[in-house]
């Protein structure tokens, strides 16, 4: 059963048949997938979804493939956690964390978009896949290309974190580091895409790729018992994920699987790369490009492709946009780790930091349901916290040396014994 009938320009509404294209020939607007929601509504039920394997593909009718997925079949269905410790620290009643730091296989939400992109690339008959990336996309394309039998070319700013470089090279890809910012990498990739017949996941395959992000939203709704939180905080780089979480909620409502979407969506960026937040605060709908300078490299996009639509999503939902400094990002990472035992990357530090700020400012009320999006894993961005978490105490393997450091008091010894008994 196929529920996709073509592509449509978001601006002039002109329609195209399904092929690896991403912009309208007439007005250069971005293309979007057209689904037959009436047909999906007749076929898809809560029960049907719940009986399927626990992966993002349980929402297959709302994803743009012709057949079953062939790449990344186990991606998604990551934990949704009811927070105790962080909720207490932030002084709020009902807090949830959606944890894509443990997504499979490369520990970020990007596995969702890449599994759709590469499954679609296979349907189109591509043998070579490529991408421009701020790091996590590189990891995911390299891994899933290896698993899916594609050759891959990956373009990144040359000065990414080691975890992201090694976590790409290990899969045997062709990694090209560009002396320049992500925006320069992306510009080069657009030129390459025009001259080479490759599947650039975030360029010519982008309409298909981006749809994968909706599953982050679908899972939130299902995991909360087919309800959505009143406030959802989302990190923004290119601004695609935030629009797709909103779209996912709206789609579930349209096909009768959600009774209303009372959600306000909040966009989070680093102060050193905040073009979308700046436009929101200025009350304009055009984005002024920036030259990013932040430890949150995964979000460091100065000219976001979906910035305009991200702004629209935030405003339409009645949400807000905010940014945090590098210092606040590190504090956010530590706070999440020390209250919930979750080690997130800098992007998660951004969402935690922004949530804290918005609660303190009274923009997010303390007595309503709040969900923080955790989109990546802290083991990949160790440089950001290298000198911020202290050091281990190094001693010789002698009891007297251990006692000399003065840590274990008599009471701690006894409590420790009680705890282990
Ligand atoms: C790419 C990325 C984002 C943002 O995605 P966009 O859709 O480009 O806004 C958020 N978090 C992490 C960890 C990412 O890698
Ligand atoms: Zn158009």
Could you give the topology of this structure?
Blueprint: E1 4-9, E2 15-16, E3 31-35, H1 37-43, H2 46-50, E4 80-82, H3 85-90, E5 94-99, H4 110-124, E6 128-132, H5 136-148, E7 151-157, H6 162-169, E8 174-178, H7 182-195, E9 199-200, H8 206-211, H9 214-223, E10 231-235, H10 240-254, E11 264-270, H11 275-282, H12 307-317, E12 321-324, H13 326-340, H14 346-360, E13 369-374, H15 399-404, H16 410-420
Helix pairs in contact: 4-5, 5-6, 9-10, 10-12, 11-12, 13-14
Residues 108, 110, 136, 235-241, 298-299, 345, 347, 375-376 line the site of pyridoxal-5'-phosphate.
Name the bound molecules: pyridoxal-5'-phosphate, zinc ion
State the helicity in percent bands: 25-40%
CATH topology of the domain at 80-106 and 212-384: Rossmann fold
Rounded average pLDDT: 96
What is the tally of beta strands? Answer: 13
**Mind telling me the C-alpha Rg?**
22 Å
Structural category is alpha/beta
Beta content: 5-15%
Estimate the global geometry from the Cα principal axes: globular
Largest sheet: 6 strands, mixed
* Largest sheet: spatial strand order: 4-5-13-10-11-12
CATH C-level of the domain at 80-106 and 212-384: Alpha Beta
Distance between the termini: 57 Å
């Amino acid at each position: 059963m196929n529920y996709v009938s073509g592509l449509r320009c978001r601006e002039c509404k002109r329609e195209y048949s399904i092929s690896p294209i991403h912009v309208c020939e007439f007005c250069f607007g971005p293309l979007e997938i057209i689904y037959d929601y009436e047909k999906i509504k007749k076929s898809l039920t809560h029960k049907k979804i719940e009986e399927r394997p626990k992966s993002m593909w349980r929402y297959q009718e709302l994803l743009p493939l012709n057949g079953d997925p062939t790449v990344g079949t186990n991606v998604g269905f990551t934990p949704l956690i009811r927070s105790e410790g962080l909720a207490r620290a932030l002084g709020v009643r009902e807090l949830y964390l959606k944890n894509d730091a443990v997504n499979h296989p490369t520990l970020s939400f990007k596995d969702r978009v890449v599994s759709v992109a590469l499954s679609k690339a296979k349907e189109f008959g591509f043998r070579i896949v490529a991408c421009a990336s701020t790091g996590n996309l590189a990891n995911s394309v390299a891994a899933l290309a290896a698993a899916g039998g594609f050759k891959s070319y990956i373009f990144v700013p040359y000065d990414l974190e080691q975890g992201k470089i090694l976590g790409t090279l290990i899969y045997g890809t062709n990694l090209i580091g560009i002396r320049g910012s992500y925006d320069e990498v992306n510009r080069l990739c657009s030129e390459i895409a025009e001259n080479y017949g490759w599947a650039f996941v975030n360029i010519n395959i982008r309409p298909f790729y981006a749809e994968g992000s909706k599953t982050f939203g679908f899972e939130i709704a299902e995991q909360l018992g087919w309800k959505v939180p009143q406030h959802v905080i989302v990190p923004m780089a290119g601004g695609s994920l935030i629009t797709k979480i909103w779209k996912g909620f709206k789609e579930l409502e349209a096909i009768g699987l959600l009774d209303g979407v009372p959600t306000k969506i909040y966009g989070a960026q680093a102060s050193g790369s905040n073009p979308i937040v700046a436009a929101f605060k200025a009350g304009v709908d055009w984005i002024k490009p920036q030259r990013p300078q932040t430890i949150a490299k995964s979000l460091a996009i100065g000219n976001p492709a979906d910035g305009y639509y991200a702004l629209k999503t935030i405003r339409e939902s009645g949400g807000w946009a905010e940014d945090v400094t590098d210092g606040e990002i590190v504090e956010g990472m530590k706070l999440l780790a020390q209250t919930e035992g979750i080690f997130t990357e800098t992007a998660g530090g951004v969402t935690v930091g922004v949530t804290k700020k918005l609660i303190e400012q009274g923009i997010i009320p303390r007595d309503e349901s709040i969900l923080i999006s955790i989109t990546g894993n802290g083991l990949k961005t160790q440089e950001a916290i290298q000198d911020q978490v202290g050091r281990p105490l190094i001693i010789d393997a002698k009891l007297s040396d251990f006692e000399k450091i003065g840590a274990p008091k008599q009471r701690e010894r006894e409590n420790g014994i009680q705890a282990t008994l």
